[in-house]
Amino acid sequence: MTVRRPAGGDEGAVEAFLTWLRVERGRAANTVSSYRRDLLRAGEWLTAQGESLVDASAAGLAGFVAHCQSSGEAASTTARRLAALRMFYAHAAAEGVVDSDPTVHLEGVRVAAGVPKPLSMDETERLLSAVTGDEPSAVRDRALLEFLYATGARISEACGLDLDDLDRPNRLVRLFGKGSKERIVPVGGAALAALGEYVDAGARDALSPGQWRSREDRSAVFLTNKGRRLSRQKAWDIVRSAGDRAGIGREMSPHVLRHTCATHMLEHGADLRIVQEMLGHATISTTQIYTKVSRERLLAVYRGAHPRATA
Fold first, then answer.
1. 306 catalytically annotated
2. How far apart are CA 22 and CA 89, in angstroms?
């Protein structure tokens, strides 16, 4: 095979791969950014060892994985970096950028099965009641918390929500998930009431600027105090702060609310396929992790409540 080196060395090879991911595979912008970070991190380490990304040996890549593991980073992070490298080299080999895939015989990274830790009903109520006051930002924060719990939306989906995506008369919302895949999700009464208070009663208008900086900001449901579309980092801060005020006792994140939505639905009889569709999971196996959570909670309640459970 004739190797065809891209212009720009490692950086050119990475950008060609990322363009393929975005255009041919339809991967979301956040996913593409994550691949870029992981590949550039690997390239920097390899360069320090006298290799490069496009000329890396299997031993060099194994050394990078070992370095990540010994540095104390989470196993899931190292596993993600290795997955990015595998996809990069598979594409590079198919395109003739490298003569063979150096990751073929690399050992995988073991990641302990992570069981989501959803909130209890009491914790959920405390969280959703944690934000008080009539300030526009407080009204916004309550609407965001209720929306995340009601829909199980990813934080990127909530931040990307436009006013036209809300179909409040029919209690529905349109979400755009990974790869810009569209799905329609129901919205409960409590979340609709919170959204109505935010959108209709003047809170969103109070956050709107005198002059919009972009069409993206003008159409956004959730705005910052400066009238910009709410960022993922700011949304994380809102959820984390509410968790602190509610005394949850562990770090809160938007993903905990997504876990909680799914688990509570299953505990109250929802069909697994319905939850899969609602969360936008590509495969049912991803959704099945929530059945384990519900089962373990059932066993814990039984053992604590049944008089002869431990006899």
1. no
2. 16
Q: Do residues 68 and 127 share a domain?
A: no
Give the pLDDT confidence of 259-296 residue by residue, as tens digits.
Answer: 899 888 888 888 888 888 888 887 777 777 777 666 66
Question: Can you give the CATH number for the domain in which 155 is found?
Answer: 1.10.443.10
Catalytic residue among 27, 154, 204, 264: 154
Would you say residue 109 lies in a domain?
no
> 67, 178, 183, 240: which one is catalytic?
178
248: domain range? 121-131+149-188+231-305
Specify if 58 maps to a domain. Answer: yes
| C-beta separation of 188 from 177 below 8 A | no
8-25 residue pLDDT tens: 577 888 898 999 888 887
Please state, in angstroms and rounded to a whole number, the distance separating the CA atoms of residues 139 and 225. 12
Q: Would 53 be classed as within a structural domain?
A: yes
Reply yes or no on whether 268 is catalytic: no
Beta pairing class for 172-176 and 182-186: antiparallel
Q: Against a cut of 0.70, is the pTM above it?
A: no
pLDDT score recorded for residue 39: 93
